Each structure stands twice: as C-alpha cells, then as structure tokens.
Amino acid sequence: MKIFVNGESKQVKDTCSVQDLLAEMDITGQRLAVEVNEEIVSKSRHENYSFSDGDKIEIVHAIGGG
Questions:
Q1: Which fold has domain 2-61?
Q2: pTM for the model
Q3: Residues 16-51: tens digit of each pLDDT
Q4: Which of 6, 39, 43 is nearest to 17 (CA)?
C-alpha cells in the first residue's frame, strides 16, 4: 500500500504498523511524535496501530531545550 511519510510517498506492506515503519526507517528508541492524518498516535498504540492506504504520516523528533 502507499502512504506518505513527511510528505514523501512510501510503499509499505498492508499490515504495516507505526512500530514497523519506525523500525524500517531505523528510528526506534528515539523520542518521537507520530501523527497520522493530523491525529497524534500515542507511543502505547505504536505496536497495534496499522496504516490505511493513502494515510499521511508526520514523524517529528522531540527536542528538549530551555
């Protein structure tokens, strides 16, 4: 299926979860925020949240500061 990650088209398997996508992109273990179709997906849902064809995903790195 085709999804859009940070504005770029990406082909993934039909059962791709947020966790799968982050692993495929080699960005696991980092402080991230994941938004799907303008809704935040909490980290506790990453393993079970599966994408649908055409979903728009935004992944941003959380940066601390002061």
A1: Ubiquitin-like (UB roll) (3.10.20)
A2: 0.87
A3: 999 999 999 999 888 899 999 999 999 999 999 999
A4: 43
